[in-house]
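Recall that a protein's primary structure is simply its ordered list of amino acids. Everything else, from secondary elements to tertiary packing, is in principle encoded there. The following example makes that idea concrete.
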Amino acid sequence: MVTRRNFFTGAAAMVGTGFVSRVGAASLPEAATMNGAVTQAPLSPPNGQPYNPVVTLNGWSLPWRMNNGVKEFHLVAEPVVRELAPGMKANLWGYNGQSPGPTIEVVEGDRVRIFVTNKLPEHTSVHWHGQRLPNGMDGVTGLTQPGIPPGKTFVYDFVARRPGTFMYHPHADEMVQMAMGMMGFWVTHPKNPDFMKVDRDFVFLLNNYDIEPGSYTPKTATMLDFNLWTINSRVFPGVDPLVVRQNDRVRIRVGNLTMTNHPIHLHGHEFEVTGTDGGWTRPESRWPEVTTDVAVGQMRAIEFDATDPGDWAFHCHKSHHTMNAMGHTVPTMIGVDHRGVAEKINKLVPDYMVMGERGGSMGDMEMPLPDNTLPMMTGQGPFGGVEMGGMFTVLKVRKNQKPGDYKDPGWYKHPPGTVAYEWKGALPQATRKHSAGGQAMPSSQAPKNIEMTVRKPGGHGSHN
């Protein structure tokens, strides 16, 4: 028999299937689900303490119910199908229909109760990354709780003690479960809605996968050679833009659950790092930047004023992280003369294509692809191929974007005279060897034998 006393005893409380059937499904909060990959409008709080909601890029925030002053959520760990970009889907594991799972938003001081139902084929847990909470609610299988068996529901119950930017993910069979996409975002808002208030507050996670072209399921044993670098399990051109109004105060919160660091770079504006997973940074500790490195397991919140209109690139600055379905065995062919070779090979291999003899640009190439994969660079802009993929999106700053409007305004219309153009005037004569450097270079008629004296510096007897 399950009593109230033993129901809430231990690291996390388990609801057996028999117990749920006796008291009825209505005893659990609704498990909202989402199957699409379109950025949803911010979730305005229907009850509880007020806060300024965030916008999850290509995601959504999880609804809750209030139960005697407790904010109750229901997460369902389950297999999901995630569209990484149009033309490619992946069999992942996630929460409530998506990977990453929905963002959880609460307010500092809220008592939070999260029901976690496991629909995976193995046990799992949820670790609330960065939170201060009772040790038994920390979600480390074997250390602070037993694993949640398949078909069971556990309850996590704690107070959101400090505001900030956090994540949630399993601490159970991590190599498999996190490689399969089990992760989500958590934001604890400050009690005072005017503290650190911004006009637009975006959140997303960085994640990576190794999915062979033509397959659907990530390799879970990969440690280094990932071929898909994603923003909220989406790759450019499938990543929605960050749409803002000119002069908005903008915050972007980034969490990194990949296997490497990411130098996140913003074009056209400088920003300050105003928060980490440890909390808000002191104002006197901040300095202007255009790139901030987000290490494994870290969160960074950056803020800036969107003063300059345009379509500004926002991306990881590791060049191979802005490509899709990368190949790790492609040889460098720069400088190799292919004349005549391609024609001969095409008689044996009809689909053979010369690659990279003058560089690596493949934006205009059209070659057959296996099912369920993506070209490395397929994004198209108003002037042609963007030649980016992976961890790349666009900050769209518009003067006439209405407050609270996140719809894509289309491509920026540049004022006359503000786009780079071709020079059609005369070109200077090329510099040749005989004129290079003028009198600063030694004359070709200089004496052949020049005596030089070299003196070894003293004072460092231990240096040889």
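The two ends are 80 Å apart (CA to CA). The mean pLDDT is 86.
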